[in-house]
Every structure is written in C-alpha cells, then in structure tokens.
Design goal:
- The chain is built from ten helices and two strands.
- The longest helix has 29 residues.
- With 253 residues, the chain is mostly helical.
- About 2% of the residues have low confidence.
- It has a two-stranded antiparallel ribbon.
- Helix 1 crosses helix 10, helix 3 crosses helix 10 and helix 9 packs antiparallel against helix 10.
- 39% of the residues are buried.
- It has one domain.
- Keywords: Membrane, Transmembrane, Transmembrane helix.
C-alpha cells in the first residue's frame, strides 16, 4: 500500500482508513492475541510460579510499550527460572519466547504491510524488540496516577522520550539500522510531540483497561491495541518516507 496525499488528518481516521482499505491488517495481532491468551493460561496451569502483574491492582495505569503489543494478565519473575532442571527450564523459556516472537512477528508484518517498501527486516525488528524488552525502562511507560518523586520534571523527560521513540518500531521494520531508525524517529517527532504523547497515553490506558477483562484480557489488549498502534506507526512512517519529510534523502539504511 502506498502513501496518499489525501490521507485523514487525525490519527484515528488514518488507522480506520488503512484498515478499511486492507482488512487483513487486523489478522496478525488477532493471532498474536490468541498466543498471548494461551500463554497466560499455560502459565497458570504449569507448576512454575506465576502471578498477577502489579498494575492489576492499580486504580489507573498506563501500559504503553514503544513496540506494538498487548498486555498479558500473568507475569513470571526471573527467580522462577532459577534452579530449574533442563526440561522445565526449556519449557519455561520456550513459553516466554513464543509470546514475545508472536507479538514481534505481528508488529513487523502489520507495519511493513502499511509501508510502500517491503524490506526483509523481521530478524532485526524482532531482535531489537526482544533485546529492549528486558530493559522496560527504555521501551515502555508503566505508570500509575499519583505523586512522582521528581514531579513535573520527570513527566517532561518521559514525555520527550516517548515522543522521540514513538516511530522507532516503524523505521526498524522499514529496514534501518537501530541508530538511524532512532534518529529518524526523533526527526519525525518534530512538531508532533504532543500528539504522540497523548496517543501513547491513550494506547496505554486502553491496553490496561482491556487487559483487566477476565480471561480474555490478554487477547483483547493485544488484538485491539497492538493492531491500532502498529497500523498507526506504519502509516505515519510511510507518510514520512513517501512525502520526503526526512532531511536525509541518501536512502542509506
């Protein structure tokens, strides 16, 4: 699908227009949502300890991830993997890898389907997603309404970072090296930082609300929020690249 100068002005309209033009955009994250829900169930069923994430008990929580994803209803602490025998360890690692790779593949496919180009970048996209997922402070915003230690200053810094990396997954999916994808994401955020931050908060609140639905929460948050975020990121990167908004036209990736 190519960019269009007559694309809707609002982010919501842009997402709806893309999905109406290509309904198959919803399929990857629906499939990933099934995997996330299945992994939630398997975590509860297997003998390894699994618990509820802390946000489950928050009055309001923003569960935003820079990479399009949903929110699982279960969590497994790193300590659960310690002293496991090899078969149990292999099962536990495979289970976590299955959920991560399903979401990564869904995000990559959805974004690249929105792009004019069709780059072979799945390995790089998935690799960076998995690598950065172990550093949640760098790739996700998980917060609750309340007093923050540094108050407004912290919020300003977090908002700037969120806006700067908002389109990072799109440029990674487009085949750019991480450093160039990060720079282009920052360049593309000029003049759009407030809309990006507001959108991130809306996505994070939506993911939290949907994930709280009993049993089906993991599926719903992944299928809905993951799809909306991936389509939006892909469409915005396609618009940025197609219109030549970037100041570097060398084509180097």
């Amino acid at each position: 699908m190519t960019g269009d100068d007559r694309q809707p002005a609002t982010f919501g309209g842009l997402v709806l227009a893309r999905v109406r033009a290509d309904p198959r955009l919803v399929v990857p994250f629906v499939a990933a949502g099934v995997v996330v829900a299945a992994v939630d169930w398997l975590r509860r069923a297997d003998p390894l300890p699994a618990g509820d994430p802390v946000w489950m008990y928050d009055t309001v929580s923003v569960q935003y991830n820079v990479f399009p994803a949903g929110v699982a209803r279960t969590t497994r602490q790193l300590g659960a993997f310690v002293h496991l025998e090899l078969p149990a360890l292999a099962w536990a690692v495979a289970l976590e890898a299955l959920a991560a790779l399903a979401v990564a593949a869904a995000g990559w496919y959805t974004i690249t389907r929105c792009l004019t180009a069709d780059p072979d970048s799945l390995a790089g996209y998935a690799g960076w997603m998995v690598a950065l997922a172990v550093l949640p402070g760098l790739v996700s915003l998980e917060g609750s309404v309340g007093l923050l230690p540094l108050g407004l200053a912290v919020l300003v810094v977090v908002a700037f970072v969120v806006a700067y990396v908002f389109l990072l997954p799109g440029f990674l999916a487009a085949g750019y090296r991480f450093d160039r994808a990060l720079r282009r994401s920052g360049d593309a955020s000029h003049g759009r930082r407030l809309p990006f931050v507001v959108t991130a908060v809306v996505l994070g609140l939506g993911a939290w609300l949907l994930a709280r639905v009993p049993v089906a929460g993991g599926f719903l948050s992944t299928a809905v929020v993951g799809t909306v975020q991936a389509v939006l990121v892909g469409a915005l990167v396609d618009r940025y690249e197609t219109r030549g908004d970037a100041d570097d036209a060398s084509g180097e990736r």
